[in-house]
Amino acid sequence: MIKQLKYKNVTWIDITKPSREEVETLAKEYNLHDVAVEELLSSSTRSKVDWYEDNIYLALHFPLGKYNIVEIDFILGQNFIITAHTDAVQPLAEFAQILDGGIDNKKEKGFHAGHLFYYMIRELYDPLEIELDGINNKLKKIEEKIFAGQEAEMVRSLSHANHQLLDIKWALKFHREVLQSLAGVAKDFYGEKFDYYLHAIISEYEHIAELVKSNREIFTELHNTNESLLTIKNGLTMRVLTALAFIFLPVSLIAFIFSMSGSEPVVESYLGWYGIIGLMALAAIITTGLAKYKKWI
């Protein structure tokens, strides 16, 4: 499905699930390189950028939605942008609405596709900042619950937060490399004045990357703290269980001995049942005292 929107002298063509017929039609109209055509029709395992004579191709991956990473292909010309993706991309739909209302771009003279790409990338990075702020708030709540004694319950919550962070980190893995490569070619393609926007695009990425790094550091500290507290709590539990086993072992042994066949005369003649119970109680008291002396309980 193709959507076309014109802003000033720049045409934006957005394609969802591009077919070969649609891409070949665009290739003829905008003089796209054969390699770029194939790139639009296939998925890339990593983000990249290529410069052809009349346009620039780049692929970037974005974590959009819960655990969903979407590849967006861009072809930048002087007066057109083509975006292609297999899934619906909400930030691009929102950007189309923003264009209908107009962009505050009074300082741009000679508006071209590079300027539109700059605003588009900002709109794609904005949801990531919101998501990372949400993860940060989630980590703060997890921290409160960890120190409230809910270490075991927080293992799954930490796992979910880590999953989100890993998805974002993986998706943005090659953005720095691609954007720096784009800065090298776009400066020649659009002119020296576009250098400011190139640096601004890279700054947008660096801001997101720093948020990811900060959240990863917080997660690591919380994970280590949670694991340490769980280990201590489990150690205390095991120590108590071991101490209880130590206390009741002599009691159980006495009960076993006097429950054996042939012990009835001894019980009836010398101790009596109350005597056996007293002996068991005495054994429990002695072992309990020894356990306390050894600081096992």
What this model shows, in words?
It is rod-shaped and about 105 Å long. Strands 1-2-6-5-4-3 form a six-stranded mixed sheet, with helices on both faces. It folds into two domains: 2-230, Beta Polymerase, domain 2, CATH 3.30.460.20; 231-293, no CATH class. α5 (154-171) packs antiparallel against α7, α6 runs antiparallel to α7 and α7 (195-259) packs antiparallel against α8 (264-293). The protein is built from eight helices and six strands, in the order ββααββββαααααα. With 297 residues, it is of the alpha+beta class. The mean pLDDT is 82.
What's the short version?
By secondary structure, the protein is α+β, with helices and mostly antiparallel strands.
Considering the chains and any ligands shown, give keywords for the structure.
8 helices; 6-stranded mixed β-sheet; single chain; alpha+beta; 297 residues; 2 domains
Radius of gyration: 34 Å
- The percent range for strand residues is 5-15%
Look up the CATH topology of the largest domain. Beta Polymerase, domain 2
- CATH architecture of the largest domain, please? 2-Layer Sandwich
Number of strands: 6
**Mean pLDDT across residues:** 82
Order of helices and strands: EEHHEEEEHHHHHH
Question: Count of helices?
Answer: 8
Helix/strand/pairing class, anyone?
Answer: alpha+beta
> Which percent range fits the helix content?
55-70%
The oligomeric state is single chain
CATH class of the largest domain: Alpha Beta
Largest sheet: 6 strands, mixed
Low-confidence stretches: none
* General form: rod-shaped
Can you say what the CATH homologous superfamily of the largest domain is? CorA soluble domain-like
For the termini, the CA-CA separation is 71 Å
Q: How many domain modules?
A: 2
